[in-house]
Design a protein that fits this description.
The chain has 512 residues and is an alpha/beta fold. It folds into two domains: 48-87 and 390-510, Aspartate Aminotransferase, domain 1 (Alpha-Beta Complex); 141-377, Aspartate Aminotransferase, domain 2 (3-Layer(aba) Sandwich). Helices cover 42% and strands 15% of the residues. The chain is built from 17 helices and 17 strands. It has a seven-stranded mixed sheet, sandwiched between helices. α7 packs parallel to α8 (205-213). Bound molecules: pyridoxal-5'-phosphate (PLP). Pyridoxal-5'-phosphate binds next to α7. Keywords: Aminotransferase, Pyridoxal phosphate, Transferase. Homodimer.
Length: 512
């Protein structure tokens, strides 16, 4: 028997039953699930990379299809997200050959061999055969940690990269790196007092996941005037302040190379961070998804946290570390396939079991993503039939990315009131822009942050979608935006030109 029916909004009611427990009910016209009744933690999540700017960009994209005459541009350029194939980066041929053979095993039958050999190189056919022998069908669930054969290949890749042993049992294949990060953060946090140190600016996966699990972000600032470097003092200050407030700081997230900031850490800096975590009893989460996007390899090569940790003295050999990698980045850019993995270093065996348990809840990572992880970690090598083409494709993308990174930084640095650090790695630039007071006032009138106001102006004028710095966090009183340097190289001059024109007219309008 319902005793009380209280109206809360136009559409939902709270019912108190005979036990006086509350439940929500819909009216004849309303929904049971509304933003009033939904999980409040989900409601609190912010995710700028897919926020207001990209939603408007999507609408403009639709408008271009219907009535292009009303807009000053002929294309929306999505620089809001590191999604290379969306901006026409070509997939690596060998990877797609193997993936397509795995998808259609009919092609591997003896009776089709003569025909298929005309289209596919022998090493792609052989690789698909090996994979299918180990996978069975791509339509079947796999082991929840990922296919054993592929985890073995990942372990060999890590060994070749670092020169230290890796155990396939310590590797979990995931749906992109994101899923792994979410799982690990879920495990690391107990309640609102559990703190995870995150860089500011940061990739919003981290702040969003912390909101979802209702744990405390413990920010540490990257130093823009020192190429977005981080110092041990800043880390110490941040952990001390958090602990004084009663936060139980458990882990430190490092994004290396950085997103949105593009810096690549030196080996000495990595050592300092490991020492800090060791002394403060903090678990390290190393997000290394951009490990092959390194544009100044002599000055700033990539060092994995695992390698540096293993090279340090015996007192560091119990340091807990999770490291994440992905098939979405590098020269591969297979974002939509959702391939990734994480390696657990020095993690308690009982926790490894818990990780396995939560991986089992979603049965298994998708098998197409797992195949891509196999290819990323075990690509063609010298002497293989496909190697020359594979190398040519990877080198061409890599060199072009380097050229585009330099060109876009030059373009930004040439704009009035804009300064931009070079990208040492990753796929982004994060310029700082000093906005005139008139623009700040105009933004206020529109109910927008000044950097969103600028970015929205850019989108409406040029079709270029970037993300305001407030979506990543920035030093109070500073304004930034993040742009990828992924637009096609043959269109890059036009792209830079339209940004220059927009900026000039924006400044002419609002200059104090
Ligand atoms: C730093 C960082 N980590 C993780 C991810 C997520 O990548 P994935 O596609 O593998 O989930 C991204 C994506 O942009 C990223 O920039």
């Amino acid at each position: 028997m319902i005793r009380t029916l209280l109206r809360t909004t136009k559409t939902s009611y709270i019912q108190l039953n005979q036990h006086n427990t509350i439940r929500f009910a819909s009216t004849k016209h309303g929904k049971v699930l509304t933003t009033e009744t939904m999980h409040p933690l989900v409601k609190s999540v912010e995710y700028a990379v897919r926020g207001a700017l990209p939603i408007r960009a999507e609408a403009l994209s639709q408008q271009l299809k219907k009535d292009p005459s009303k807009l000053n541009f002929d294309r929306v350029v999505f620089c809001n997200i590191g999604n290379p194939q969306q901006l026409n980066q070509k997939p690596i041929t060998f990877f797609r050959q193997v993936a397509s053979l795995c998808e259609n095993p009919e092609l591997l039958k003896t009776e089709n061999r003569a025909l298929v050999s005309k289209l596919y190189p022998a090493d792609a056919i052989a690789r698909a055969q090996v994979l299918l022998k180990n996978i069975g069908s791509v339509g079947a669930y796999s082991h929840s940690k990922g296919i054993t054969h592929i985890r073995e290949n990942v372990a060999k890749f890590i060994e070749r990269r670092d020169g230290y042993a890796a155990n396939p049992d310590d590797i979990f294949l995931t749906q992109g790196a994101s899923e792994g990060v979410q799982k690990v953060i879920q495990l690391l946090t107990q309640n609102q007092q559990s703190g995870i140190m995150i860089p500011i600016p940061q990739y919003p996966l981290y702040s969003a996941t912390l909101s979802l699990v209702d744990a405390a972000p413990v920010p540490y600032y990257l130093n823009e005037s020192q190429s977005w470097g981080l110092s041990r003092e800043d880390l110490q200050k941040s952990v001390d302040e958090a602990r004084q407030k009663g936060v139980d700081v458990r882990a430190l997230v490092i994004i290396n190379p950085g997103n949105p900031t593009g810096q690549c850490l030196s080996e000495d800096n990595i050592k300092e961070i490991i020492q800090f975590c060791h002394e403060e009893r903090i678990v390290l989460l190393a997000d290394e998804v951009y490990q092959t996007n390194i544009y100044q390899p002599e000055r700033r090569p990539f060092h994995s946290f695992k390698k540096v940790l293993k090279s340090m003295g015996p007192e560091y050999q119990e340091q807990e570390l999770f490291s994440f990698h992905s098939t979405s980045k590098g020269m591969i850019g297979e974002c939509g396939r959702r391939g990734g993995y994480f390696e657990c270093v020095n993690i308690d065996p009982a926790i490894m079991e818990q990780l396995y348990k939560i991986s089992s809840i979603s049965l298994c990572p998708n098998v197409h993503g797992q195949i891509m992880v196999d290819l990323m970690t075990n690509p063609p090598v010298e002497g293989d039939e496909s190697y020359p083409q594979y190398k040519a494709e990877v080198d061409a993308i890599f060199q072009s990315l380097g050229r585009r990174a330099t060109k876009l930084a030059q373009c930004f640095n040439g704009l009035e009131g804009v300064t931009c650090n070079d990208a040492e790695g990753a796929m982004y630039l994060f310029p700082q822009i000093s906005l005139p007071n008139k623009a700040i006032e105009a933004a206020k009138k529109e109910g927008m942050t000044p950097d969103s106001f600028y970015a929205m102006g850019m989108l409406e004028a040029t079709g270029v979608c970037v993300i305001p710095g407030s979506g990543f966090g920035q030093e109070p009183g500073t304004f930034h935006f993040r742009s990828t340097f992924l637009p096609e190289e043959n269109l890059f001059d036009k792209f830079c030109g339209s940004l220059e024109d927009f900026h000039k007219s924006f400044m002419d309008k609002y200059r104090d």
